[in-house]
Amino acid sequence: MAQEFQGKTALVTGASRGIGAATAIALAQAGCAQVLVHYASGTEGAKVTAKAVEAAGAKAVLLHGELANEAGITAFIETLKPYSGHIDFLINNAGSLQKRAKLEDMDLATYNQVMDLNAKSVWFITQAIAPGMIARGSGVIVNVSSIAARNGGGPGATIYSASKAAVAAMTKGLAKELAPAGIRVNAISPGTVDNDFHARFSTREILDGVVRMTPQGRLSTNEDMAEVALFLCSNAARNIIGQTIEINGGAFMV
Ligand code: NAP
């Protein structure tokens, strides 16, 4: 695989921890020359990711960007300008539930943050990066949706689920639009990953319940996600277009 990734640049949003960090490191280990490590509040985590990327032999560039509001998305796109024409792999991974809120508790500010971070940033970052890929006639975009897009999510995660359904729909629409230009767009759809995301938003009781309902009998890991994202970037996935790959140990079957 190393040869096909050689000399390539990847941008991974939300690479300060979790799935994004694992994917940034996997891309470096696969042979990418440069990995752009995006982060927001996780400065220390981003530095740890960058160190691992460099240990794998790639150059790491830390790029800050707050993506849960329009001003932050616009500022990040400015930050990207020196790199945006040269990105071969775009992993639109940054995302969050922000907080669990049922219908009566979901305020407008939180609604907007969830949609801006999980859906709007995916669209406008892709809009900034795609022209460089189109000019070169090649590139791969991997979005990160969620099992919640399929099942409506756990308690208080309805708007999060809607934002991830938007990502799955964008994946198909963009795939159709960009495939003729030589760009493949797909998504991964994690189930329940045993990482900081659920440490913050779920209880051990909820997670144990998920394990009981999962045929494979365990939660997913960051590396389970990263390896499928890497596969989608590789030539082995050359005929896969517009798919959202469910990765959840059998907890949800399409
Ligand atoms: P995580 O550990 O919470 O990491 C989330 C990443 O997103 C962090 O790098 C974080 O950056 C970034 N991020 C969060 N808020 C941000 C903001 N306002 N602006 C810019 N970046 C922000 O979660 P994860 O599990 O790795 O999640 C990665 C993706 O997978 C997300 O899109 C998530 O929705 C999706 N997903 C996760 C699960 C799961 O079970 N964990 C399931 C389905 C889908 P900073 O730390 O630097 O702020």
The DSSP helix count reads 10
Average of per-residue pLDDT values: 97
Largest sheet properties: 7 strands, parallel
| CATH topology title | Rossmann fold
Helix content: 40-55%
Distance between the termini: 29 Å
CATH class annotation: Alpha Beta
Please state the second-level CATH architecture. 3-Layer(aba) Sandwich
What class, by secondary structure content? alpha/beta
- The ordered H/E elements are HEHEHEHEHEHHEHHHE
Ions, cofactors, ligands: which are bound?
Answer: NADP nicotinamide-adenine-dinucleotide phosphate
- Uncertain ranges: none
The proportion of residues in beta strands is 5-15%
Shape: globular
* Corresponding CATH superfamily: NAD(P)-binding Rossmann-like Domain
Pfam families: adh_short_C2
Keywords: Oxidoreductase
InterPro entries: KR_dom, NAD(P)-bd_dom_sf, Sc_DH/Rdtase_CS, SDR_fam
GO molecular function: oxidoreductase activity
